[in-house]
Specification:
The chain contains 15 helices and no strands. Helices cover 80% and strands 0% of the residues. The longest helix has 36 residues, at 57-92. The chain has helices at residues 2-12, 16-39, 47-51, 57-92, 104-119, 124-152, 155-183, 186-196, 205-224, 226-232, 236-241, 246-268, 274-286, 290-314, 323-345. The protein starts with a helix and ends with a helix. It has a single domain, classed as ABC transporter involved in vitamin B12 uptake, BtuC. The protein is mainly alpha-helical and 346 residues long. It is globular and about 65 Å long. α4 packs antiparallel against α14 (290-314).
């Protein structure tokens, strides 16, 4: 027991100067990406001219009412998806855990689609209902995945079962979405089609402000779990002997992940593979300590989504590519690479 705890301290202790350098570097890269994104788009607008009051009124309106909330939403969604991926990988002790692969995003998307087609009304209640539907969908799928992992008891069999369960949930959600598309009106069908591919076009202050508050709360809950996630990597029995309440940790991570992912999907649709790609790469670089890995993943996810969304807005301007397509094109091959590498290691 003492040897294990000493190993934990050795592996998880991160020098302060290294932590500062990593987080400062990621923060600087994110700020540079935000400056680039703020000035890029179908309509070229200089943020400096806007702040100095030297742009024309139309450009000022576009920048403040459309581009700025979109940037903030991109930062929040990227941080949430990557942070939840890092937390789930630590919770399940599975490097392939990801809100998309395990079906959380699809479950949330199905519940939101049901709300849009069957229950959506006008006014603020529609927004709150959409957020609640996303949260409930992600929570249901997360509880299913957690039950499967507990029944399997860990190991490679549990990893494969989780992936197969995620595949089944994604398939069922796709079938449910097809049924909803069949009965939807033309207006609802257009909304579902664009939203389903993953996009930040719904970033208006009315929707973004509430989402930022809820996502910030979810990120705070995940950050509070960093030390406990480090202990959990030693196994539940050892972590319990060190004073960890594993059930409380699991409830906190499940609720935070379900809330954050549900809100993200409700607003942006399914933006895949951020929760796998970013934390997995950073884990290889920074090690398994979640006190650095979690904030680094959040910054890295925000950086990647801001860059991807800027490319989506500018590559085919004035047309716009759904950002979810870009992240899937990037994450899909990487996931296949991870599977092949795991097979060679077995």
């Amino acid at each position: 027991m003492i040897a294990l705890l000493n190993a934990y301290r050795y592996r998880m202790l991160i020098p302060v100067n290294r932590t500062t350098r990593v987080l400062a570097g990621l923060t600087a890269a994110l700020l540079l990406a935000l400056v680039w994104a703020a000035a890029s788009g179908a309509l070229g607008i200089s943020p400096w001219e806007v702040l100095r009051g030297q742009e024309d009124p139309f450009s000022v309106q576009v920048w403040w009412q459309l581009r700025l909330p979109r940037l903030l939403l991109g930062v929040a969604v990227g941080a949430m998806l990557a942070g939840s991926g890092a937390a789930m990988q630590g919770l399940f002790r599975n490097p392939l855990a990801d809100p998309t692969l395990l079906g959380l995003a699809s479950g949330a998307g199905l519940f939101v689609a049901v709300w849009i087609v069957l229950f959506q009304d006008s006014g603020a209640g529609s927004l709150y209902g959409q957020f609640a539907a996303g949260f409930l969908g992600a929570l249901c799928v997360c509880l299913i995945g957690f039950g499967i992992a507990k029944r399997q008891g860990g190991g490679s069999a549990a990893v494969m079962t989780l992936l197969l369960a995620g595949l089944a949930i994604n398939t069922l959600a796709g079938a449910g979405g097809g049924v909803l598309a069949f009965i939807a009106s033309d207006e609802q069908l257009r909304q579902l089609s664009l939203w389903g591919m993953g996009t930040l076009t719904n970033a208006l202050w009315r929707t973004t402000a509430l989402a930022l508050v809820l996502i910030a709360a979810a990120l705070w809950l995940l950050m509070r779990s960093a030390r406990e996630l480090d202990l959990l990597q030693l196994g539940e029995a050892t972590a319990h002997a060190a004073g960890l309440d594993a059930s409380h940790l699991k409830r906190r991570v499940v609720i935070a992940t379900s809330l954050g992912v549900g809100i993200c999907v409700a607003l942006t649709g399914v933006i895949g593979f951020l929760g796998l790609l970013v934390p997995h790469c950073l884990r290889l670089w920074l090690g398994p300590g979640h006190r650095l890995l979690l904030p680094a993943s959040m910054l890295g996810g925000a950086l990647l989504l801001v860059v991807a969304d800027t490319l989506a807005r500018t590559v085919a301007a004035p047309a716009e590519i759904p950002v979810g397509l870009l992240t899937s094109l990037l994450g899909g091959p990487y996931f296949l690479y991870l599977l092949m590498r795991r097979n060679r290691a077995c």
